[in-house]
């Protein structure tokens, strides 16, 4: 059977198509079907913008100015705990109560002792007043005898007895006065005992020394805290901070006022500033500490883990969206627009933590046009044209006008 040369060529070509040709891309399909809708693209010009260099840091929430509330000097059983970690408290608010039985007994004993000494002092005052009158009487009697002695109406013996009687009255008065002074001193000391006993009784009601947020509760109900033992920690005026750990070589780049983005949770973030940088660990090679104050009222529990991005500097750089990056066998590239054609230009990129844009380190000069959106639909060498009347861009195929905007192409996006 004879087969023409034409048919032989076709028979050889048919099995090669599935074996050696790849599947058509969307652009190629549009070229194969001229009536298909044009694929819109967004073209931008590479312009430098302000870029912030950042470092990652991790840490936890801590009170900025913690105050520790300790147990009183007298031990007692803890009968009540009135607050929990995270509670806001006012100055003087009750935090806990201790069993007041012993303290009340001590106060009553001190008050009874004070009453006894005050009664003794009142008795001594009465005695002292009587002795004072006796001294006056003895002095008057001695004076009368002295007048009578001038006329010879009395003897020297009587006058000598009167002198002795006056001296004895004076000694009794001085002794009574000394006893009253000691009693007065005892009263002052006993009053101090009463005041101390009252303070110990008042101390069984443990109160907040200032307004703030309770960040830690150490004891349990029924325990018997020892004198000076830490019971509560309070963040004064609810001032909390994030204490972050950073690498020592980053510390020289940080200073108070550096911008920080904090993540208190996966979906809760805020912007703040560095308030304190601890540079004491640079030489030791250990992690450094950076503190970031949180705004008052921030609902943050002490000990909660946080992460942060700290700005270490700012500079001008060309940023492109991730949608502009296309893969090449040798690395990433960006579709530049040169003479209305797409040209795949290899670039060197530096990724940033925001997850939306990358920095072009090399390969995209300032002012160059590039396809920012839908670049993956364009192949190297494809035609990229602009609608003259609308300033819009599209690639390959034919443009199609909308019914409500004559002369403009459906779906295209314009960015200068």
Characterization of this structure:
Helices cover 29% and strands 34% of the residues. The protein has 416 residues and is of the alpha+beta class. It has a six-stranded antiparallel β-barrel with strand order 3-11-14-13-12-15. A four-stranded antiparallel sheet has the order 4-10-9-6, with no helix packed on it. A hairpin with a 2-residue loop joins strand 16 and strand 17. The radius of gyration is 48 Å and the shape is rod-shaped.
| Outline type | rod-shaped
Task: Report on the biggest sheet.
Answer: 6 strands, antiparallel, barrel
Count, helices = 4
Give me the side-by-side strand order of the main sheet: 3-11-14-13-12-15
Annotation, overall tally of beta strands: 23
Radius of gyration: 48 Å
Provide keyphrases for this structure.
single chain; 416 residues; alpha+beta; 6-stranded antiparallel β-barrel; 23 strands; disordered C terminus
Brief write-up:
Helices cover 29% and strands 34% of the residues. The chain has 416 residues and is an alpha+beta fold.
């Amino acid at each position: 059977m004879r087969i023409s040369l034409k048919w032989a060529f076709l028979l050889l070509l048919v099995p090669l198509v599935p074996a050696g040709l790849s599947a058509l891309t969307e652009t190629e399909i549009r070229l194969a079907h001229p009536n298909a809708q044009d694929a819109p693209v967004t073209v931008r010009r590479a312009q430098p913008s302000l870029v912030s260099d950042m470092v990652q840091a991790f840490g936890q929430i801590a009170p900025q100015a913690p105050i520790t509330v300790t147990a009183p000097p007298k031990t007692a059983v803890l009968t009540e705990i009135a607050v929990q970690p995270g509670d806001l408290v006012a100055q003087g608010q009750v935090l806990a109560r201790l069993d007041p039985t012993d303290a009340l007994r001590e106060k009553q004993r001190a008050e009874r002792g004070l009453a006894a000494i005050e009664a003794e002092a009142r008795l001594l005052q009465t005695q002292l007043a009587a002795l004072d009158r006796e001294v006056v009487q003895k002095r008057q009697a001695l004076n009368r005898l002295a007048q009578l002695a001038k006329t010879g109406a009395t003897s020297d013996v009587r006058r000598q007895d009167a002198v002795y009687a006056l001296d004895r009255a004076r000694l009794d008065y001085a002794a009574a006065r000394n006893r009253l002074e000691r009693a007065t001193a005892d009263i002052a000391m006993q009053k101090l005992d009463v005041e101390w006993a009252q303070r110990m009784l008042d101390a069984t009601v443990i109160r907040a020394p200032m307004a703030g947020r309770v960040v830690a509760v150490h004891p349990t109900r029924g325990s018997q805290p020892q004198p000076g033992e830490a019971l509560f920690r309070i963040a004064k005026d609810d001032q909390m901070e994030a204490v972050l750990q950073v690498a020592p070589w980053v510390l020289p780049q940080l200073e108070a006022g550096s911008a920080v983005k904090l993540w208190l949770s996966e979906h809760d973030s805020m912007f703040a500033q560095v308030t304190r940088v601890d540079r004491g660990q640079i030489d030791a090679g250990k992690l450094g500490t950076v503190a970031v104050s949180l705004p008052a009222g921030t609902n943050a529990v002490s000990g909660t883990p946080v992460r942060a991005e700290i700005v270490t500097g700012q500079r001008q750089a060309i940023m492109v969206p991730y949608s502009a990056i296309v893969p090449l066998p040798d690395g990433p590239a960006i579709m530049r627009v040169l003479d209305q054609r797409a040209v795949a230009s290899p670039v060197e990129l530096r990724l940033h933590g925001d997850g939306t844009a990358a920095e072009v380190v090399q390969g995209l000069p300032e002012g160059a046009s590039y396809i920012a959106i839908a670049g993956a639909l364009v192949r190297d060498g494809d035609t990229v044209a602009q609608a003259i009347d609308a300033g819009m861009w599209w690639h390959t195929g034919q443009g199609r006008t909308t019914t409500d905007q004559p002369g403009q192409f459906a779906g295209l996006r314009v960015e200068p």
